[in-house]
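dumping this here before i forget
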Amino acid sequence: MSQSPRGDNGRMSSLPPWVAVGTLAFAVLGLGAVFGMAWRTARWKQHGPQTAVGAIHMACTVCQKELVFHRDILVLLTPPERALAVRVKPELVGRKLAEYVCPHCEAAHCFIVDGRRPEWVAANLYEPQTTSAHCMECHKPLRTPPWPPGEYDGRLEQAPALAPDYGLVCSRCQAVCCVACCANLARIRSKETKWMCPRCFRYPVDTLFYP
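structure:
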């Protein structure tokens, strides 16, 4: 009696048909995964990470460069910064605000983030700091106090006389405003201080500014 061959072909011919079909299917799926990964990689290199799910894709309104970022890197505004933003846009009262700083030109983009998707408001909406020799509020020029820097900081009540055109530095937002503007706002809004920052409505404002 002759024996059937025991080679590879013999072993393959003895396999059930569903095994061969399954092997072919896995091979096709593997090739599809490889080609799919290659396509995604090429698309990422061509278009950047804006293809990622959930990414915010926009052009910077200042430098026009492409910006791609996720919501979780937005930084919530501090209370003084929110006050400055509301001062420029009163309709933002009560809204939750955050910012993204452009890595190309450092423009601060403000977003409303109390909804499902961040809503862009404006760029450079507020200026928390200035070193100008003019009052940020009334824009009048500031005079240099006659005392050495730091002599009456923190105890302005002891200064011989505070001229209305001396500058004061806000301890909260670092804005520089004249004594007159700070005093006028304090008279209207606060019974706890003689000088209040017209930019962020906070105090103390007890550091003299030297142009």
